[in-house]
Amino acid sequence: MFHKLKLSFYLFITLLALSMPSNILAGNACTNGNLVNPGVLTIASGNPGYAPWVLDNAIEKGKGFEAAVAHEVAKRMGFSGNQIKWVSASFDQSIQPGVKNFDFNLQQFSISADREKVVDFSTPYYTANMAVLVRKHTIEKGAKATLTSVRKLVWGAVANTTGMPFIKTVITPTTSILLYDDNADAVGALKAKQIDAAVFDLPTALFISAVQMDDGVILGQFPAADSTNPDHFGMLLSEGSPLRACVNEALSSMKSDGKLAKIEAQWLQNSTGIPVIK
Amino acid sequence: MSAEKSSTYHKNGTPLPAGVPQISRRQIYENRAKRRSIITASLSTVFVILLLSFLIPLTPGWEEVKKSFFDWNILVKVFPALLEAFLVDIMIFAWSSIAIAILGLVIAICRNASSPAFYPLRLFGTIYTDVFRGVPVILAIYLIGFGIPGLGLDRPWNNPYIWGSLALILSYSAYVAEVYRAGIESIHKSQKAAALSLGLSQMDTMRYVILPQAIRRVVPAMMNNFISLQKDVALLSFIGPVELLRQAGVYKSLLANFTPYVGAAIIFLSVTIPATRFADHLIQKQNKQRSQ
């Protein structure tokens, strides 16, 4: 009994000694004292994570656009390897009152004025065009990349996104909009022909049409500049978080030295050649 | 009887002259006890409410919770749209409940078919209730709502309203069938025997003798099923229709505030509470009739 206790005590001391230096070293002056878990940067993402943002639902591996961005931001804030803790937190968990379990959360959250009242966002790390995903038979029936043509389609979107207000204000379809819980359900509805067209951000639409559907076609896109409420993706932080300055600093250095563009080129498909809907 | 008559008193305790409406001593006692219990109940309720409304705001997170869940401006802003979305729930409920009442009865009768020739019907009834009571409603909605239209149906036959409602109808009629069956089995065997011996056919016995009594007996239990159906209609939002809960979810996501859900809860409650009270009232009425 005594030996066991002694042993575990030594083990504890050793572990403490091992973990101390890294804790003191991790981070920079900006992050000190401001982290949810001291010495560790806690990054949240969605569960499941969707490609091309996070591949294989494993953000810790750094594959996918957001996974790579998260790793790079963490690196520039002074964290890497096991100094980063990965957690999952849904949108609802991120806006609920009370203490958050993450330092920042990224999963294609669009920055909006209403949301800014409750939480904080970093500067945008990506600006997405809205894209219209349809199936081949819809195009064969004569759907064109014009507003008057797409208005007649039956529209769907993912409920937690800015897709619904976008369809309502920009497209103003003639039939009522159908909404789904996630990308998979919206694709299911396209396959069941319950909807003709769905809006996604362009990279998601490209990925779905290439990987998840046999006959998915991107009918066209709406450039962010045209949209009344462009989809700027920002990292979500708790209201008034002092870390926001650190994250913004990391992001702006990534923008200025071209790293962000490089990550984008690596993980997001080239979207030139997709018609613009007018 | 005469002894009871002689012991009638006025409220203040003096004996009453003949001809005045008479209150027995027991009634006086009961009235007094009733009044006292009402006063005690209201006092303790007021006390608890005061205590809660004093204590909750003292918690450190109250201001934030208030902002996220009880934002009056947001509630006012979204409420009309929520009410409009609730019409979708009412519509789905209306046609589903009728279909459920009918299909449930058919299944119950299948399960009660006693002739050996009808054994396949009984088997079907049993398997049906087993399967649909065992499958979560949401799974049935996904399978039927996405699966069947995916087989290649074209508009308008792949409409999510049709198949989603069908999923609800199939699931709920399994429960309702069991309620009917309990009602049918609660009618004493002698009634069936009597009806048959009077020369009524099996069908007529069921129709004119057993069902009228059985259905009356199970109405309160049935009400409970329909109250829960009223809430489960919201599950149809998973396959597309923008009903109350989904509309509230959209606002929640756009405004980053949970108040729209509170608004949805208010709307649901404004329907379910009266319905629940009504079911309780029916149960009480029935208990009274039985104890007479």
Total beta-strand segments of chain A: 12
Q: By helix and strand content of chain A, what is the structural category? A: alpha/beta
- In N-to-C order, the SSE pattern of chain A is HEHEHEHEEEHHEHEHEHEEEHH
Poorly predicted runs of 5 or more residues of chain A: 20-24
Binned, the helix content of chain A reads: 25-40%
**Tally of helical segments of chain B:** 11
Poorly predicted runs of chain B are: 1-6
Overall, the morphology of chain B is: flat
* Class derived from helix and strand content of chain B: mainly alpha
Biggest sheet strand line-up of chain B: 1-2
Largest sheet of chain A: 5 strands, mixed
Give a quick account of the main beta sheet of chain B: strands, pairing sense, barrel closure.
2 strands, antiparallel
SS elements, strand count of chain B: 2
The coarse silhouette of chain A is elongated
Share in β-strands of chain A: 15-25%
Summed over residues and divided by their number, the pLDDT of chain B gives a mean of: 88
From the structure above, extract its key features.
heterodimer, A: 278 residues, alpha/beta, 5-stranded mixed β-sheet, 3-stranded parallel β-sheet, B: 292 residues, mainly alpha, two-stranded antiparallel sheet, disordered N terminus
Question: In a nutshell, what does this entry contain?
Answer:
Chain A has 278 residues and is an alpha/beta fold. In chain A, 38% of the residues lie in helices and 18% in strands. Chain B has helices at residues 2-6, 25-55, 62-69, 72-112, 119-134, 137-150, 160-186, 189-197, 202-232, 244-255, 259-291; strands spanning 8-9, 23-24.
